[in-house]
Amino acid sequence: PGEQGRMRKHCLIVLLILNIAALAVTGSAVCRYLFFSGSKPATDTIINDEAARLSITSIPRDAKVFVNGYYKGRTPADVKIVSVQTNTSFKLVILKEGFLRWEKNIKLHTGDFKEFQAVLKKAR
User: What one-character-per-residue DSSP string does 36-78 give?
Assistant: First the structure.
């Protein structure tokens, strides 16, 4: 009974540690998404036929995309903007380490689809 009791206790401790580790990893991923992604998940997931859509590519790829200061992903990126009214202005910014900032002021209308390709220049 003594050896079996110790073995059972050891197994329970190992299972407890594994569960705590799994919760920590899951919680960490959720926190990073909610607090550090810079996007607004509730706004980005609204389905609205009157949203404007942007298709953004860059050379080189994998540059960060910002619309009005909000991080929207990395190129190539498809961005949906739901807060569009007639002739609304937005600032599109593309950033990549080692390259100059690319930015463009754009006007969007309800239902617009626009494509942009940012050719980034090397920083000196």
Answer: IS-S-HHHHT---TT-EEEEEEEESS--EEEETTEEEEESSEE
Examine residue 60 and say whether the peptide bond preceding it is cis (omega within 30 degrees of 0): yes
Burial 45-72 (b: 16+ CB within 10 A, else e): eeeeeebbebebbbeeeebbbbbeeebb
2-23 pLDDT, tens per residue? 777 788 888 888 888 887 877 7
Per residue in 35-90, pLDDT (tens digit) is 555 444 444 444 445 788 999 999 999 999 999 999 999 999 999 988 777 667 89
Nearest alpha-carbon partner for 95 in 62, 55, 117: 62
- The two structure tokens encoding residue 101: 């900032």
Please tell me the pTM assigned to this model. Answer: 0.59
